[in-house]
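Repro case for the chain-ordering regression, as requested:
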Amino acid sequence: MAERGTRPRPEPDDIETTGSPADGEVWLGMLGDFIGFHLRLAQEASYQAFFQRIARDEGLEGLNIKPGHLTFMALIAENPGITQTALSRGCGRDKSSLTPMVEDFVRRGYVKKRRLLNDRRSYALTLTPAGEELSRTLSAHARAHDDELDRIVGIDAKPELIRLLRRIKMSLG
Amino acid sequence: MAERGTRPRPEPDDIETTGSPADGEVWLGMLGDFIGFHLRLAQEASYQAFFQRIARDEGLEGLNIKPGHLTFMALIAENPGITQTALSRGCGRDKSSLTPMVEDFVRRGYVKKRRLLNDRRSYALTLTPAGEELSRTLSAHARAHDDELDRIVGIDAKPELIRLLRRIKMSLG
DNA sequence: GCAAGATAGTTTGACTCCCTACTGTTGGGA
DNA sequence: TCCCAACAGTAGGGAGTCAAACTATCTTGC
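-- result from build under test --
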């Protein structure tokens, strides 16, 4: 019974006089000490920067390529014949999220989906030549993006950063 | 002949024999060296762990509280009278994403929304006593979650990790 | 063999998010 | 005074995600 009509808002409440409080900067409080909080902001910033970088490539115009597609393509390239479930684990996404993406990329001719004879539940995914080409393009962008991250982080700090991030994933995942 | 019922899918392509390829472990290739890739996996793992932690709290049963709500509540608590736009910046989300959440929390009696007299475009958000209580609960969970992250990362490495994450956000955002 | 449970992939539904366009308000010039 | 650009917040649409239920297939134990 979600009354979601045209005017369901519970009234903007009352009117009251208040000087603009903390309008310029936001005080984080304890959030500023939380690894999880900064993880999210950094990941979001990285995602957006990579997204913008891809969007700038005229060769990818209209293909609607997103950062998530890099992982998708790169993992198929590195693991020819990978199954969708294994791919979903590698991508860190639910397997049901991959279904539309696989279907889309098969239709566009980047990915080939072959049924296995010895286990007819599974499909083996491989890249077509066009898919290899697209994968190379995305990988080049990814490398450029990560070079930028390397500069920001500093090349000495990078191994330690990756070690810590992997540790978080391993310990919690 | 196995008439496989209705088949709206664009044909699973062809059948081919292939031994199970890399089904156990997935080879990451160059992805394994990318900061952005590990950032996403670590962030997702942290999100899921925090989500599970909240879900375990019987006091929050049925409230449908998610990790994002912590940031939302904590920032209002730390910045009483904050506007929705400032809050959206702090949360790292588009302001239009906050509209349903604000509406929801106002209706549930956790947040108070007052119109400003000196600028009738804005609303000042504050927590109700119930909101303060909820915020304290969420903050306690967040602290426990981040204590776990501290243990994983190691307390010596934490300042450096946060410094690097902030640097990424600042440089790219 | 054959039933029971596991597994691969798909479907569906709910949810969250962003983006774009829109309304109402403010404030600064012609 | 009157415009009009800038701003706060909302509405609507579309994309992407997960979780649960479902189908088809494989495996195991009897």
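Ordering looks correct now. The two ends of chain B are 58 Å apart (CA to CA).
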